[in-house]
Fold:
Amino acid sequence: MIETPLEFQSDGTTCRGVLYTSDADSKGLPCVVMAHGFGLTHASGLAPFKEAFCNAGYAVFAFDYRHFGDSDGQPRQTLSPRKEVADWLAALNFARQLDRIDGSRICLWGTSFSGGLVIAAAAKDGNVQCTISQCPCQQHSSLTAFHQPRLSGFHQFSVSGF
Structure:
């Protein structure tokens, strides 16, 4: 797996992540954008998922929220669902602009707390082709305020060919 460290801006704060691809030359790849759940970083146990997606022909852009991991932001270790949804949207828009990525084939992948965040971000964005929400936390009022009015437009999608 090829790892390319990258950074993007979210509301004026530098967030950092890594683009994972199976080789250095592929173009037009569908992309899975992922981040970890409650208080963890993309380096915390997501390797099997990154590898599986890359082995299946997808690029993976895994990032850390502001205030966590490699990303900037003070104070450190500060959890804010609204800011994290904004970070998802910034990461999504950043991934869409990458030369190696087909910006029309993007999936958001989240687990635990980020499982709820990806639903909120996808609903707010309105153009996400696929979400994978593993064991989502959806009870926080900051999350439900974002996606409740838009959920009626969501349908089940197959991961292949998103």
Summary: Confidence is low (pLDDT under 50) at residues 141-162. The first strand starts at residue 2 and ends at 10. Helices lie at 47-55, 81-97, 113-125, 141-147.
